[in-house]
Design goal:
The protein is mainly α and 504 residues long. It contains 10 helices and no strands. Helix 4 runs antiparallel to helix 5. It is rod-shaped and about 195 Å long.
């Protein structure tokens, strides 16, 4: 559409300029063509005069009259600037000369017919004024000649009716040409009005083109801003993708650490079951010692060995608890790192605005999970500390029992009391081991839940990474579309500039 509008405006401007140049050139060419017709007509009439009249004074006078009219026409052609006066001298002077020529020669019908040619030549100027100022004097001269000198119109062998008929035909042709020129001028006036309207429309179109150029500039600036914002969003998405990758890696690391802790807890669980079985054996031995004192010595020996085993088991239990404490410290460190990553992710999501809302929720869930992991680790640490104290107490009592057992070998009198104390201590230790068993079972369950949550978090992180990848691809496609639109606007701006140049 812009190309068609551009071509229409250019056509109008060229037509307007061409119309001005054409009028000037047309008028100049008409004067030249009419003068040439007069020149060749004078030459032809002179030659015809010598052939018809021979060489005599009348022929020379007639030819001299025509040459004088040719000179007058030449003065008008080359010296006169006014187009109207120039046209009258070129056409009217030879026309009047034809009447004088015919009068001098005593009649010549061909001379009067030349006036029809001159009338047609005046009509070529396409102006009523030219027709009137030529035809009125010529028609009056012809009418006078038809009344008083009919031979001038119809020749030496004249017929007055023919003479009047020729004059009437001249007048009729003049009227017809006048009407034709008048109608033509009306059409030309309408064309000029139409051209003026088109010219006005072209100016309005110029204003529209200027406004269009301004609007396109604004649109281009808006697209540039949009492209810049899309680039920033793409960069933010890339940063978010990096944060998600870091979070995923950290989560995987946490999962591995939790798996290691779970393995250690399972080991402690098995050790607790073995310790519980050992205490069952001790309890059986103590009860058997209450029935047979003689067997007590042997039982006491076995008990001493069992207590020694229990002492070793307690030492191993203390070592495993120390390992669990170390693992819990690592879990607290991982939870702190996860919390820091969650804080960084929340900050990046806030920077991303609307596009980071979904990731902000994920970051908040990671923070909650980190807090829960840290809280669970603290609870386990407290339980282990309490259990360590109880284990120390049990260890001390077992040691005391061992010492007592060694003394009972030599002091059978105190055997029953010692066995009772050992039985009580064994029951307490048994209860403590059972409590530890329950705590470890609870920790295993908690770790399983944490591991499941972390797996869900990993899956969510992967989904967010895929979503961010899709967002990045959409932004890339948007940037390509903006680039294409920007190229189109550049082309339109170029065309608009060309239109503006044509208008100016």
């Amino acid at each position: 559409m812009i190309f068609a509008f551009k071509n229409a405006i250019i056509f109008i401007l060229i037509f307007e300029q061409f119309n001005i140049i054409f009028r000037e050139e047309l008028m100049k060419n008409l004067h030249s063509h009419n003068y040439l017709i007069v020149l060749f007509g004078t030459i032809a009439l002179s030659v015809m005069t010598f052939f018809s009249e021979g060489i005599n004074i009348r022929a020379f006078i007639g030819i001299g009259i025509m040459l004088a009219s040719l000179i007058a026409a030449g003065i008008g052609k080359f010296l006169i600037k006014n187009d109207f006066v120039k046209a009258l001298l070129i056409n009217l002077t030879p026309s009047i000369a034809t009447f004088v020529y015919a009068f001098v020669l005593g009649g010549n019908s061909v001379a009067f017919l030349a006036n029809f040619v001159f009338l047609s030549m005046m009509a070529l100027y396409f102006d009523k004024k030219y027709i009137i100022y030529y035809s009125v004097p010529v028609a009056n001269i012809a009418l006078i000649c038809a009344i008083f000198f009919p031979f001038v119109i119809d020749g030496a062998n004249y017929d007055r009716v023919d003479a009047f008929t020729k004059v009437f035909l001249f007048d009729l042709v003049a009227i017809v040409l006048y009407k034709a020129v008048d109608r033509g001028r009306e059409l030309l006036s309408q064309s000029e009005e139409t051209l003026s309207t088109i010219n006005n429309n072209s100016h309005a179109a110029n204003d529209i083109a200027i406004n269009l150029n301004s609007a396109i500039e604004n649109c281009k600036n808006g697209l540039d801003n949009l492209s810049e914002q899309a680039t920033k969003v793409n960069e933010a998405a890339s940063q978010m993708n990096t944060v998600i990758d870091d979070t995923t890696n950290a989560t995987i690391s946490v999962t591995e650490k939790i798996q290691d802790a779970t393995d250690e807890i399972n080991k402690n669980y098995e050790l607790s079951k073995e310790l519980d079985a050992g205490f069952e054996k001790v309890d059986t031995s103590v009860r058997a010692g209450n029935n047979e004192v003689n067997v007590v010595k042997n039982t006491l020996s076995e008990m001493a060995e069992t207590v020694g085993s229990a002492r070793g088991a307690m030492s191993e239990l203390m070592n495993e608890m120390s390992k669990i404490t170390s693992i819990l410290e690592e879990i607290n460190a991982i939870a702190a790192q996860t919390n820091l990553l969650s804080l960084n992710a929340s900050i990046e999501a806030a920077r991303a605005g609307e596009h980071g809302k979904g990731f902000a929720v994920v970051a908040d869930e990671i923070r909650h999970l980190s807090e829960q992991s840290s809280e669970a680790a603290d609870n386990i640490h407290k339980i282990i500390n309490g259990l360590s104290g109880m284990t120390d107490e049990v260890s001390n009592r077992v040691n005391a029992g061992a010492e007592s057992a060694n003394d009972v070998v030599s002091k059978m009198d105190t055997l029953v009391n010692v066995l009772t104390g050992i039985n009580n201590s064994t029951e307490v230790a048994h209860d403590l081991v059972r409590e530890q068993y329950k705590v470890i079972e609870s920790v295993r369950t908690a770790f399983d839940s944490v591991n499941s949550d972390i797996q869900t978090l990993v899956a969510t992180s992967e989904e967010n990474a895929a979503m961010i990848s899709n967002i990045s691809e959409s932004i890339r496609q948007q940037e390509e579309a903006v680039s294409n639109v920007d190229d189109g606007i550049e082309h339109v701006l170029k065309l608009s500039g060309e239109l503006k140049e044509h208008f100016n």
